[in-house]
Amino acid sequence: MMRQACAACKYQRRECTADCRLAPYFPHDQPQHFKNVHRLFGVMNILKILAQLHPSQKRKAIRSIKYEAKIRNRYPIHGCLGIIRTLQAHIHQSQQQLDEVNAQLSIYREQHHQISPLPSSQCSMTYGGKPQKMTVKGGSSQACAACKYQRRKCNTDCPLAPYFPADQRKQFENAHRLFGVSNIIKILKQLDTSQKMDAMQSIVCQANIREKYPVHGCLGIICGLQVVIHRTQQELDAVNAQLAICREQHHQISLSSSSSPFLPIAACARIGEQFSYSLPKPLSKSTIQCRRCHRSFYRDTPSFLE
């Protein structure tokens, strides 16, 4: 039986041999996946990434690469960075709501001399809270980082000089290693002048993340943020439920006080007993440990944009 060529070999119109390194990751029925990956990163860069990884990590890396290529094809300007910032905004909004509900809950607890309110979530992560400021080259004959790396003369019409000044060599190395110069220039040519700076910021950010996390890349950051959103929402729902119970009990106490200025001791005990049972349970050790893991994994993410 004749071997069916993989999507990579089909696209490049070459024979797919038994030792094809891309066949396990790009089956013949996934031509669009390979097309997106090849257009954004190039075959040689993908093979270099795979060569640096353990065999058990390669499939996960290709999965994240496919995802990034799909997102860049859909959002050519911001790419995965746009999704990361959207998730951060969601986390920030949920954290604000949680703080407001905890503040309201503390009022009822102080009135009944109960314990301090449930601490607000510490899971909110910041990733590049401020957009990266890329210095625009001008008024100097010094070669840009791209031309320095490629050891060529930097002309006044160099397409990469505005985005990679001489002091940003590391950023260019990461972008060149992941995308390649020709692919970066192709992306810029498809955009308006007003969009190019934002696109380059997202490209540099994506390349820096891939250099830091070669297996999961941006997909790892996005999945981590989604976990934080889920856990923050769970905590918000729990605190909202406790606040509803406290409001109802406070209402019952107000009605009882208005009907009789002196409550029987047994009634006071029953109300106090119900109120104490409605207090939120302290966070479990597993939840606290999970939060610590997420904070330790992402605590240095702002350095990617420096």
Structural write-up:
- This protein is mainly alpha-helical and 306 residues long.
- The chain has three domains: 7-74, no CATH class; 79-128 and 216-305, no CATH class; 145-212, no CATH class.
- Helices cover 63% and strands 0% of the residues.
- It is built from twelve helices and no strands.
- It has helices at 7-12, 31-40, 43-51, 55-74, 79-111, 145-150, 169-178, 181-189, 193-212, 217-259, 265-277, 285-298.
- α2 packs across α4.
- The longest helix has 43 residues, at 217-259.
- The radius of gyration is 28 Å and the shape is elongated.
- Mean pLDDT is 80; it is low at 114-133, 135-140, 262-283 and 285-306.
- It comes from Cinnamomum micranthum f. kanehirae.
- This is LOB domain-containing protein 27-like protein.
- Residues 4-105, 142-243 form the LOB domain.
- InterPro entries: LOB.
- Belongs to the LOB domain-containing protein family.
Record field, number of beta strands: 0
* Biggest sheet descriptor: none
Uncertain runs: 114-133, 135-140, 262-283, 285-306
Count of alpha/pi helices? 12
Helix content: 55-70%
**What is the total number of structural domains?**
3
List the helices and strands and how they pair.
Elements: H1 7-12, H2 31-40, H3 43-51, H4 55-74, H5 79-111, H6 145-150, H7 169-178, H8 181-189, H9 193-212, H10 217-259, H11 265-277, H12 285-298
Keywords:
mainly alpha; 3 domains; disordered C terminus; single chain; about 300 residues; about 65% helix; 12 helices
